[in-house]
Design brief:
Layout (H helix, E strand, L loop, with lengths): L4 E7 L5 H14 L7 E4 L4 H4 L6 E6 L9 H9 L3 E6 L5 H4 L10 E2 L6 H11 L8 E5 L2 H17 L3 E3 L1 H4 L6 H10 L3 E6 L7 H12 L3 E6 L12 E5 L5 E2 L2 E2 L1 H36 L4 E3 L5 E4 L5 E6 L6 H13 L5 E8 L6 H10 L6 E4 L3 H5 L3
Parallel strand pairs: 1-2, 1-3, 3-4, 4-5, 6-7, 6-8, 8-9, 9-10, 15-16, 16-17
Antiparallel strand pairs: 11-12, 13-14, 14-15
Helix pairs in contact: 1-5, 5-10
Length: 383
């Protein structure tokens, strides 16, 4: 495919933009995409390079002076329904720094380097390279870190994450352990509060083992005078000191650092889980003598016995409505006479049975079907 993802930068110059691009390309590489799949567009090459039907995400950098640049290009993008993110140095000054046509769009405050990871996540989500659901799982030992766990739950929710905390997230009457593993199977990152007695609990030990078995990225927030838990595979350590606490709660700067670390780890974690599904599928195809081809956009094509192609889209976690919509958009972009059907490929292990039954029911009505990675060899023999 020759279609490229377009990163469009218009408006004022910004001192953080170079750093934003550096972090963006780092995550692009982690997601298994080539830098050649991206094209950077600004006012100098807009008329020549911009493609209205190709995936695009625009950053409009606001002006401190109130003198707004590139309004003609901005109007073109608005008319083409391109996602545009207004960026300001201070959200309190949003109305003064952003042109009238963007004042009904939620803005982003880029005030320091801690904001860069969050901005890059918005860009990747806008290009459908990261799923829009932003799910976290807090693993902790109740008698050692429940106060901090609740603090993190509240602060991460404020930063746009759907956070699972056992005391807050399981409804009365729900089977506790089933729901626990279901939510972990659908999470992006586990935030592990590594206190001295963390592994003395059977529950926390099981949570760590589950996270490892599912290749979920773990941010280990390590208590002062404690050490990294080396049983974790895809793990990023964040060593705390006494100065990170204020009356048994984390300081605001420490919270900000944790949010930034989570944003950074999230892309790596999702990419690792997607790669595992891809590898398992291709291995199964090889075993039954089918040739499966991994395309640059991380979907798989495989030929049916009648010579027509099937598109297989690896999906992390529980397929949701937006996942189906994104897949249908991708299917339409690559549509040709030879493509017969498209499928969402997911790992149903640890997902609750009621969700599996619901997804099976949807298969009867939606154009995009699902395939479970377990038992995929049997399915491959039927096509």
């Amino acid at each position: 495919m020759t279609t490229k993802y377009q990163i469009i930068k218009i408006g004022d110059d910004n001192s953080f933009y170079k750093n934003v691009l550096g972090v963006f390309y780092l995550h692009i590489t982690e997601l298994g995409l080539s830098k050649d799949s991206i094209i950077e567009i600004d006012e100098s090459n807009f008329l020549k390079e911009y493609k209205r039907n190709a995936p695009a995400f625009c950053l409009y950098f606001g002006s401190n002076s109130g003198s707004f640049k590139n309004l003609d290009l901005l109007n073109t993008l608005i008319n083409d329904a391109i996602l545009i993110l207004p960026i300001v140095s201070d959200l309190q000054k949003f109305n003064a720094q952003i042109p009238e046509v963007l004042k009904n769009v939620n803005g982003f405050e880029l005030g320091n380097n801690n904001d860069v990871e969050k901005l890059v996540s918005c860009m990747l989500e806008g290009l459908s390279l990261l799923r829009l659901s932003r799910r976290l799982f807090i693993s902790y030992k109740r008698d050692e870190s429940s106060t901090v766990a609740i603090q993190l739950f509240e602060q991460l929710e404020k930063n746009g994450f759907d956070v699972f905390l056992d005391t807050h997230s399981i409804r009365p009457g729900e089977p506790f352990q089933e729901e626990l593993w279901h939510r972990m199977a659908d999470t992006d990152v586990v935030v592990l509060l590594n206190t001295p007695g963390f592994l003395n609990s059977n529950w926390t030990t099981q949570e760590l083992a589950k996270a490892n078995s599912m290749s979920i990225g773990i941010l280990q927030v390590i208590w002062p005078s404690h050490k990294l838990e080396r049983d974790a595979e895809l793990s990023v350590p964040l060593q705390l000191s006494d100065s990170d606490f204020n009356d048994k709660l984390l300081t605001s700067s420490t919270i900000s650092n944790i949010v930034s670390q989570v944003e950074s780890l999230r892309a790596r974690s999702l990419a690792s889980r997607q790669d595992n599904i891809i590898t398992e599928f291709i291995s199964s195809a090889n075993k039954v003598g089918k040739k499966a081809d991994l395309q640059s956009e991380k979907f798989i094509t495989i030929k049916r016995s009648d010579g027509k192609e099937l598109v297989i889209i690896p999906t992390v976690g529980v397929p949701q409505a937006f996942t189906y919509h994104q897949s249908e958009e991708l299917r339409n972009r690559i549509k040709s006479k030879s493509i017969a059907e498209a499928y969402l490929l997911f790992d149903h292990r640890n997902i609750r049975e009621k969700w599996i039954k619901y997804l099976d029911w949807l298969d009867n009505y939606l154009p995009i079907k699902t395939i479970k990675i377990v038992g995929v060899e049997k399915w491959l023999k039927t096509i």
